[in-house]
Write a structure and sequence with these properties.
- The chain is α+β, with helices and mostly antiparallel strands and 88 residues long.
- It has 3 helices and 2 strands; from the N terminus they run ααβαβ.
- A two-stranded parallel sheet has the order 1-2.
- 6% of the residues are buried.
- The mean pLDDT is 88.
């Protein structure tokens, strides 16, 4: 495990291999993270996901939002928008 952490730290140029967290999969991590954040949400809060997001990122947020009664909005990303080639 230590060697794996060190390899990952080297790959992403982390200062310390203990900054690397290894877990089961992205969906499980996002599910746990969304549940933790959901404890801080209040009526009127909104969660925004995009149409480019994979379901492994969308479903945990939608599920957590439904459990605490906040709104989920989906940002529709269209081809060519935003134009990142011009000046900022």
């Amino acid at each position: 495990m230590d060697a794996t952490r060190q390899s990952c730290a080297d790959l992403v140029n982390a200062d310390d291999p203990l900054e690397i967290v290894l877990r089961s999969n992205f969906t499980s991590l996002t599910f746990a993270f969304s549940r933790a954040l959901a404890r801080t949400w209040n009526e009127g809060d909104e969660i925004i996901v995009s149409t480019l997001d994979h379901d492994s990122n969308v479903s945990p947020w939608v599920s957590a939002a439904e459990d605490v009664g906040v709104i989920v909005r989906k940002l529709d990303i269209e081809p060519g928008w935003p134009d990142l080639t011009g000046p900022v």
